[in-house]
Amino acid sequence: MKRRSLLKFTIAAAALPALTLRAEEGLARLARDAYIYTYPLVKNYLTLYQYALEPGGSEYKGPLNTLNSVARVYTPEDTAIVTPNSDTPYSFLVMDLRSEPLVVTLPAIEKGRYYSMQLVDLYTHNVDYLGTRLDGNEGGDFLIVGPSWQGETPEGVRRVVRMTTELGLGLIRTQLLAPSDIANVKRIQAGYSVRPLSVYSGTPPLDAPPKVSWPEISEQRMASEYWSLAAFLLQFAPPLPWEKELRESFGRLGLIPGAVWPPKGLAEVSAIREAGQEAQLELEAGALKLTTSVGLFGSPEDMKGKYQERALGAMGGIYGNSVEEALYPSYLFDATGRRLDTSKYRYAFRFNKNTLPPVGAFWSITMYDGVTRFLVNNPLKRYLINSSMLGDLKADQNGEIIIYMQHQSPGKEFESNWLPAPDGPMGVVMRLYLPKAEALDGRWMPPVIEVLP
After folding, report:
1. pLDDT tens digits for range 348-362
2. What is the number of structural domains in the chain?
């Protein structure tokens, strides 16, 4: 607990034994750790709820355990997740694996197009991937099972993925090669499907899981009802093998999986809430300093013990890919450490043929509002510049391609190279899908953001 948090105890401190003060400090540290541990679960549930548990909501995609596609890229109207990708139309599967596994079918597609299904557990770990990188583009049937499933794998299943939590999210990204390519994306999306294992194998269905009263959630409720939401969600997220002792320690905070919080008799409610508020501020400050996705996203094994990194990833860009799948250099500050602000300055990236991002699939540069982290409305309805647009980008007299990031157009001659920015703080994320070795080992370095005169 920070010094100012202890001021209210100053008068009584002289009469309290040192052991009691140490206990109070220990409680604050534990509450801080529990907040950072559970933050990704609560942030994740905000999206899962909007996507599958809020019929009639603006972000609703469809019921649990159904696969739903959106045959368009993200726009500024999409606000369920921060820093959304606008390169690939998405398909969504919010999974409840308490009753039985699911069989996901991917169709075979042409070799030159990227597609993937990112399988995210409630903790926001990337448990596994289906698609181009690991399975090629031949498609097939894949069995997704819950943490306690012990059944047999039926014939015809290409691969089994065991999720670490009973709730999870499958995100399918289908590469859009050009605006005119959307009909092909729709055709591919029509080939995505999901079935309960019993339907796939022709066996009697298992008993339905107990009904759940899913609590409402919003950004406001995340703040006011945080600990109650965290306790509710922990029941769907068994402790990983190396964290059983940590999870047991949360009982001191009254944080019992599936139980009401605060429990009767918990005397430290105010101190726990205050420690959570300070942990939130700590994460917000850390998120502003992020410049790369490296270390923020990965499998449960990759993220073992990295609770703060996992929380920062959830806050700064939830559902980011593992680095083998995609790399995300990001920018909120210029080379001098000054916050990017297009109400005051103009910015640019500069490339030549040797410095373009090295990828096995595609790269993109996406503009965001620096405060909300959402896409930016602009007259061109252009939210990114990517590798499929290279043929339309103009080079200068030195053969360099300059990407202009500013609020006003750079002029008709170079408008093809303009990535429209907000009239105020901006953020930029570069995406490298299937980054090559030189992008991962440091031989290729992301470009420096320039301040133009």
Report:
1. 999 998 899 999 999
2. 3
